[in-house]
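Async update (no meeting this week)

Hi team, since we skipped the sync, here's where things stand on the single-chain job. The sequence we agreed to prioritize is pasted below, unchanged from the tracker. I ran it this morning and attached the output directly underneath so nobody has to dig for it. Comments welcome in thread, and please keep replies under the output.
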Amino acid sequence: MSLREYQRKRDFRRTREPAGKKRKNPENGARFVIQKHEASRLHYDLRLEVDGVLKSWAVPKGLPARTGEKHLAVQVEDHPLEYGDFEGIIPQGEYGGGTVMLWDSGTFEAEAAKKGLEAGKLHFILAGQKLRGEWALIRMAKGEKGNEWLIFKADKNVRPIS
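Output:
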């Protein structure tokens, strides 16, 4: 998924979302963000900084809290790094219209994250204000869209999303 797709879906004259561009973030390194997004349905957006953008998944039930627990994660378009600081209301009628709230943020570790995502398997460690621990994203069978993944908890040191 590309940043162009993100920009194509939005009218930046109507929304306060950042237009952004692909860039490296020299300050924070590999950042993660989880945003609570009340759009057509309540969900959580997981965003991982990889290759100058925020790779993004909509996770309807939030990140799993118990070891081995699996949740659906639907990959959406890449978002600009600036989106990691975005909170506010996206106007109704605009793509993703609804309230976006920063739920957690911090850093993440993953060996060869870009290659792992391309291969459809990424193991990562989050160090956030609320979430700490290990998760994995596994792409489900490459179907028509190829954007459905499973996210599962890989250790016991995390508090559940509430």
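Quick observations from my side:
The mean pLDDT is 87.
The beta strands are 31-38, 42-50, 53-59, 70-79, 88-90, 98-109, 121-128, 132-139, 148-153.
Reply here if anything looks off.
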